[in-house]
Amino acid sequence: MEKQPLLELKNLKTHFHTDDGKLTAVDGISFQVKKGEILGVVGESGCGKSVMSQSIMRLLDEKYTTEYEGEILLHGENLLDLPMPNMQKIRGNDISMIFQDPLSSLNPVYTIGDQIKETIMLHQKVNKKEATKKAIEMLRLIGIPSPEKRMKEYPHQLSGGMQQRVMIAMALSCQPKVLIADEPTTALDVTIQAQILDLMVDLNQRLGMGVIFITHDLNVVSEICDRVIVMYLGQVVEETTTDHLFSKPLHPYTKGLIKSIPQIDGDRGKELHMIEGTVPSLNNVPKGCRFASRCPFADDLCKENAPELRTLEGNQKVRCWHIEKILQEEEGKYDITS
Ligand SMILES: Nc1ncnc2c1ncn2[C@@H]1O[C@H](COP(=O)(O)OP(=O)(O)OP(=O)(O)O)[C@@H](O)[C@H]1O
Predict the structure, then answer these.
(1) Which of 89, 258, 268, 328 has the fewest CB atoms within 10 Å around its CB?
(2) What's the complex ipTM?
(3) Pocket of ligand 1 contains residue 234 by CB under 6 Å
(4) Shared-domain flag, residues 15 and 87
(5) What rounded mean pLDDT belongs to the chain?
């Protein structure tokens, strides 16, 4: 039976009212996250990944600058319709978020224990003693040695990796249905990074949590994600399974990203492919395909007309006018290699 989505975005748009006019940083994003699934979100800097996740949590300034359109459905309920106090209950209880920089989310003047306990007591009906027990359990679960001792320490007394684990412990302490992880391991060294990713996958499988994993690192995507969306200038340009992303990327932008993955072994000496050009700015969004100025396939059609996201066989979705041409090239490639 097809799993029901935990979280579904339907044509989400996030607009900022600025001195330069109205800028649309997220422009019609739709996707689903199912129970126990890890959805990767990739794309170059500035393509709207963080604005999208902050929109899901409704963390942006709605009073003065930000305007949303579309739907963010959690179990069928549109989060964009909720009054802020209700939304605050959703945060931490149903959806949690972990950020790139752990120190920005940990309070330097409170001990680790107090911060986790406070999060637990804010979201669950438990007394202090029970909250302490749960906090220790969570630190143990997340692989922090001597959790009783760590509870009494302040954030600055912990290494970067430990701080990140504490933040993950806090995010998971209420067993959210959905976890949004925004570049959670970028600032960490490779060994710690691998340990934290293992932990996240383990918890995702054990707790059945849906995860939205935002990253620049396609190697990480290949290791942990089930499906991936590729974003470009506020839109999804490709959505596919992780297997297909690497074996059969179709959008020219996705192909460029895959080619620019640094090779650790093999291919040594081969020049790293960089996608030429830069992402257009939000106050100068092209009227045609947003990737056209950097695309080797682009012609007049692309420059004049914006392509829709098309669904292909295997539920792969691609926003490009030249899918057939690209598919033919792929076929050719397979003929030679098979
Ligand atoms: N408050 C704001 N007002 C106006 N524009 C904003 C605001 N916040 C973000 N933007 C713009 O929205 C676009 C998307 O930014 P966002 O931070 O989501 O990109 P990103 O893909 O997460 O990049 P990175 O990978 O570097 O974190 C950028 O052009 C950014 O300048």
Answers:
(1) 268
(2) 0.97
(3) no
(4) yes
(5) 88
